[in-house]
Amino acid sequence: MALDQSTNPPIMESKTRHPLHQIADTPTHKLLLKQWLKEEELILSRVSHKESQTDSVRREIAQLYIFFFLFHSISLLLLFHAASSSSASSASSSACKRSWIPSLCSLVSSLGIIWAVRYKSEVESLLEKLLEREKEDAKLLRKCVEELKKKGVEFDLLKEVDALRRAKSLRVESKVAAVRKWSARDFVTLFFFSVSCSVLAMIRLILCE
C-alpha cells in the first residue's frame, strides 16, 4: 500500500502536466511548433511588405487621377486663351481646321493615362488578393498553433495538418468558382473615357465657335 501511494503522485503529476511541457519533451511536436512559429513570422513579414506595396500603388493611382484632370484643365484654358486672342474670322477658321491636332494630342494622352490607371488598378487588385490569402494563411496557422499549445501531446498531427490543407484547398476552389462581376475599377475606366470624349467636344467647341 505504501508503494502504491508513493507511485501515485508521479502518475498524477504526469497526467496534469502543462501542454507546453509535454511538447518540449516530444521531438515531433516540438519541431512542428518551431516550424509553424517560424512560418507565421515569415507570413507576417510578407503581409507587411504587401501592405506597403498596396499603399504605394494606391498613391500612384491618385497621382494619375490628379495629372489627368490637371492636364485637361490646363490644355482647355490655353486653347480658350489662344482662341480668344485670335478674334479674326480667318484666324478662327484656320484654328478650326487645325483642331484635329490638339484633339489627337488630347485623345492619345487620355488613352495613355487611362491605360496606366487600368494597369495600376489591376496591380492593386492582384496585391489585395495576395494580401487576403496571406492573412487567411496566417489565421489558419495561428489557429493550429493555438490548438497545439492547448492540446499538447493529444494534438493529432496527421488529422490537424490534413484539416489545414483541406481548408486551404476549399478556399482556393471557392475563389475559382466565383463569377467576376463589374467592379469600381470598371466604372472608373468608363468615367475617364467619358471625360475624355467630353474634352474632345469642348476642344472642337472652343476652336470652331
Characterize the structure shown.
With 209 residues, the protein is an all-alpha fold. 89% of the residues lie in helices and 0% in strands. The protein is built from seven helices and no strands. The chain has helices at residues 2-15, 19-24, 27-85, 89-97, 100-151, 157-177, 184-208. Helix 3 packs parallel to helix 7 (184-208) and helix 5 packs antiparallel against helix 7 (184-208). The radius of gyration is 33 Å and the shape is rod-shaped. It starts with a helix and ends with a helix.
For the terminal residues, how far apart are their CA atoms? 115 Å
* Biggest sheet statistics: none
Structure annotation, total helices: 7
Number of strands: 0
Radius of gyration using CA atoms only: 33 Å
Q: Report the β-strand fraction as a percent range.
A: under 5%
Enumerate the spans where pLDDT stays under 50 for 5 or more consecutive residues: 1-14
| Average pLDDT for all residues | 79
* Class based on secondary structure composition and strand pairing: mainly alpha
Helix content: over 70%
Order of helices and strands: HHHHHHH
Shape estimate: rod-shaped
